[in-house]
Amino acid sequence: MEIMTDHGFRKTIKILRALLFISLIGMIGALLFFIGILTYAKILGPPTLAVPQSTLIFADDGTLIGESHNGQKRYWVKLDNISKDLVNATISIEDKNFYEHNGFDYKRIAGAVLADIQAFAKVQGASTITQQYARNLFLKHDKTWTRKLNEAFYAIRLEMNYSKKEILEGYLNTIYYGNGAYGIEAASQYYFGKKASELNLAEASMLAGIPKGPGIYAPTSSLENAKARQKIILQSMVNDGYISKNQAETAAAQPLAIVGKHTTPKVKIAPYFQDAVKNALKNQLNLDDRTIALGGLKVYTTLDLKQQKKAEEQIAQVVNESSEIQVGLVAMDPTNGHVKAMVGGRDYEKSPFNRAVQAIRQPGSTIKPILYYAALEHGFTPSSTMRSEYTTFHFDGGRADYTPHNFNNKYANDEITLAQALAVSDNIFAVKTHLFLGEGTLIETAKKFGLSTKMKDVPSLALGTSGVRVIEMANAYSMFANGGNKVYPTLITRVEDQNGNIIYEKEKTHEKVLDEAKAFVMTHMMTGVFDPKLNGYTRVTGSTIIKDLTRPYAGKSGSTETDSWMIGFAPQLVTAVWVGYDVSKPIEIPEEKSYAKKIWAKFMEAALDGKSVRAFKPPKEGVVGLYVNPANGKLATKDCPIRRLTYYVEGTEPTEYCTEHIGHKNKKNEGKEKKIPWYKRIMPWS
Fold first, then answer.
1. Separation between Cα atoms, residue 309 and residue 37, nearest integer Å
2. Alpha-carbon distance 401 to 190, whole Å?
3. What is the pLDDT of residue 670?
């Protein structure tokens, strides 16, 4: 054996020292590099965990009525609301050492590398739950070194800034389970029709196997593959001590009922209402389209499912199926403006145009209560009289003459009271009142009632010739029903973000915009629309539906050549109904002219069925109720054939007694006792 010379030995030592130095420098560099990565990760702070989630829309009782998504069902549930069996099954098969490692399972990585080398191919994965979560959140699923390095860096950031519970919860809510279901809640509902918290061991072990290959292991793709994968997972859970061998065998043998469909129905509940809700999210809450669609919002609305169903049913029953006429309906709680039902058309699939909130149509005589409220503010009373007769109005300044007409050209050709004029919808009285007040008065009063559409300053405005929206008219009448408090049409009561934080909640407001006494006087006058006692030279406008009503209502109908309306209310509910053609074609079929009233009457009765019958209670002060002769508005005597209780703003009540019937009792009805329906007894009518 050749002995190394001193020179050779010293040379070898130098080489070894150099290699050792280089190695040390490399180790220090690697350590500094690793420290730098950790420092940089810490400086960047926690990565945002927001992921696309379905926005859910709920009715007023908490029932899910719809969701917004782009073909991906995404719900988020807390870890505590996920089946423990599902959590254990996932950890057992995906990442046994999840609670021990810091984002990387080095033993598993080494084993995977060795297996790949032996097979000369990638045959075993080593990604932890943290790494998979990082990939689901921030990266594409391509197999490149850049993606792997980014995945590792995001995994470090997740482990540094979030707890194991938060990471596991996020993973289970973002992993793909096939068939458009992202996250365990969507998967549980799709495959088994139940919540993730309700999964049993058999169901949980099957779902835990799907993420490895949804197209292979989903039970809807191959039940055989799904069962085979389930057995592997159950055995893994036995090995890890989560369950016993007997539990595994029982779960493997348990038959499973696969649902295979998403719970939200394809045909949306109240689709016009839901569209209006999304529009409110965008225009009132200033949320962008992506947040509305995939922000994971929980939107709690005012919709009453029972009333919505009744509205749709009554429209379908009343309107002839072959008719092309359209319907808009809004029902509202007058105390707070909550929209309880909305119909924007007869078939959403054929026409999503929402006639309840988008269409601007002539309101006809339904504008008159607003006009007459203005008249009360200017000294008019229910007993104020004007002459009803064929009239042509002449104007200075070159303005054209104007000749309004009553329905069927019927006139009293005599003095009539304001209360009568409203009940029989006399147009001459309305135009005279409008011109007396000044044509700008009605425009300003309409704004007070929340009408936002531009109105023309013309004599015919008193007859509703300037367009309005159905929802705004329902809101305007709500102010009569609630005693003059300002309300706004409200569709949304609360909105939560994907983390459960409240980002919007409707505030309770109380602002008087109408005089309470005058609002009640006007409301009580509107009950005359359904009161045969106000019959004069023509029938009251609500006479055709009186027989269908079983409780006190106030309201007003309206019609133009192209539009038919009925708006009315009980103390608990206001409903506005519009009927007409989209192209503003004249309504000529007699049956179609009656649709609005029939729909309104049938809906109100159905919606309030089972609810207490309430009278319109006068305010504690500011009004006086007196019996008058409705034919002339004077105080009634015992000789008057008809006496009706009528309310006046205190100080404006009549003082003159009717003398027309003194000594002329009505012999025809003498000695006969007229039977009064029970529901009218709660109203203070004679």
1. 60
2. 69
3. 46
Q: For residues 181 and 188, what is the distance between their CA atoms, to the nearest angstrom? A: 9
109-111-115 Cα angle (round to 5)? 115
pLDDT of residue 122: 45
Instruction: Give the tokens for residue 607.
Output: 């919606």
pLDDT above 80 for 371: yes
Q: Report yes or no: 137 and 171 within 8 Å, Cβ to Cβ.
A: no
Crossing angle between the packed helical segments 6-44 and 145-161, to the nearest 10 degrees? 60
pLDDT at residue 140 is higher than 60: no
> What residues have CB less than 8 Å from 82, skipping those under 6 apart?
169, 172, 184, 185, 196, 197
| CA neighbours closer than 13 Å in the CB half-sphere of residue 606 | 22
Rounded to the nearest 10 degrees, what angle do helices 129-138 and 145-161 cross at? 110
Note if 94 is an active site residue: yes
Taking the CA atoms of residue 641, residue 647, residue 649 and residue 655 in that order, the dihedral angle to the nearest 10 degrees is: 20
**Per-residue DSSP letter, 402:** B
Catalytic option among 94, 312, 472, 592? 94
Give the N- to C-terminal CA distance of the chain in Å, as an integer.
137
Query: Do the bridges between strand 634-635 and strand 623-629 make them parallel or antiparallel, or are there none, so unpaired?
Result: antiparallel
List the Cα angle 257/262/265 in 5-degree steps: 120
Which of 188, 205, 236, 365 is the catalytic position? 365
- Beta strands 73-74 and 181-182: pairing type? parallel
Handedness of CA 459, 462, 468, 472 (dihedral sign): positive
For residue 158, how far is the Cα from the chain centroid? 37
* Poorest-pLDDT segment among 88-92, 115-119, 636-640: 115-119
Task: Give the whole-angstrom CA distance, residue 474 versus residue 332.
Answer: 7
Q: State yes or no: is 605 an active-site residue.
A: no
**Is-contact 318 602, C-beta < 8 A?**
yes
Here the tokens at position 362 are 């002539």
- The rounded distance, in Å, linking the Cα atoms of 574 and 556 is 12
The predicted structure's pLDDT at residue 35 = 57
* Token duo for residue 391: 């009239």
Tokens of 663: 């000594």
132 — pLDDT class (breaks 50, 70, 90): confident
pLDDT digits (tens, 9 = 90+) for 533-563: 655 555 778 889 999 999 999 999 999 999 9
pLDDT the model gives residue 356: 97
Judged by average pLDDT, the poorest of 15-29, 52-66, 319-333, 584-598 is: 15-29
